[in-house]
Automatic annotation (TrEMBL):
Transmembrane segments: none annotated. It catalyses: 8-oxo-GTP + H2O = 8-oxo-GMP + diphosphate + H(+); 8-oxo-dGTP + H2O = 8-oxo-dGMP + diphosphate + H(+). InterPro entries: MutT-like, Nudix_hydrolase, NUDIX_hydrolase-like_dom_sf, NUDIX_hydrolase_CS, NUDIX_hydrolase_dom. CDD domains: NUDIX_MutT_NudA_like. Signal peptide: none annotated. Residues 8-133 form the Nudix hydrolase domain. It is an enzyme of class 3 (hydrolase). Belongs to the Nudix hydrolase family. This is 8-oxo-dGTP diphosphatase. Its EC number is 3.6.1.55. SUPFAM superfamilies: Nudix. GO terms for biological process: DNA repair; DNA replication. It comes from Dyadobacter jejuensis. GO terms for molecular function: 8-oxo-7,8-dihydrodeoxyguanosine triphosphate pyrophosphatase activity; 8-oxo-7,8-dihydroguanosine triphosphate pyrophosphatase activity; 8-oxo-dGDP phosphatase activity; 8-oxo-GDP phosphatase activity; metal ion binding.
Length: 140
């Protein structure tokens, strides 16, 4: 039975499409978190008084121990999870340094944009991948 939820939590989640030499970083969620072993773009939930950019820089430092530079935003996508709405806020980014240490993810992969669709992504990410491919096709 569906539960009627009069006030829905809206959670803003900036995330990074990190490009490096034509490849894109995909990160696999830990087996111990929600949506275990699904693939995602690294990032996380916005904290109070943070801008999207501040959240992204903080989350990427926490998750990958690396600094990034934001190149440009892509359209936001909304995923209804019943009791909350996840607003994914994607940014195309590049690395400012190259050594990474994973603290939350199971593993990462660097993939060509055409190979992204081969992974088992969290649901909201399919729109991001579509928008990213549209961006690339206009850029080429
Ligand atoms: N970072 C990130 N999160 C995503 C993506 N797609 C997507 O649905 N999400 C969801 O957005 C939320 C991000 O929160 P988080 O990174 O702090 O992860 P978490 O496991 O602590 O969150 P949760 O336990 O509340 O689900 C998660 O529920 C995650 O599943 C994505 O591409 N990147």
């Amino acid at each position: 039975m569906d539960t009627y939820c009069p006030i829905k939590l809206v959670v803003r989640v900036p995330c990074a499409i990190i490009e490096h030499e034509g490849l894109v970083l995909a990160a696999q969620r830990s087996a111990h978190l929600s949506f275990p072993l699904k693939w995602e773009f690294p990032g996380g939930k916005q904290e109070k008084n943070e801008t999207d950019e501040q959240t992204l820089y903080r989350e990427i430092r926490e998750e990958l121990d690396v600094d990034i530079e934001i190149i440009r935003p892509l359209p936001e996508t909304v995923k209804d999870q019943g009791w909350r709405e996840i607003v994914l806020v994607p940014f195309i980014c590049r690395l400012k340094s190259f050594e990474m240490t994973l603290s939350e993810h199971e593993k990462i992969l660097w993939l060509g944009p055409e190979a992204l669709t081969e992974l088992d992504w969290t649901e909201g990410d399919w729109d991001i991948i579509r928008h990213y491919n549209e961006y690339l096709s206009v850029k080429r």
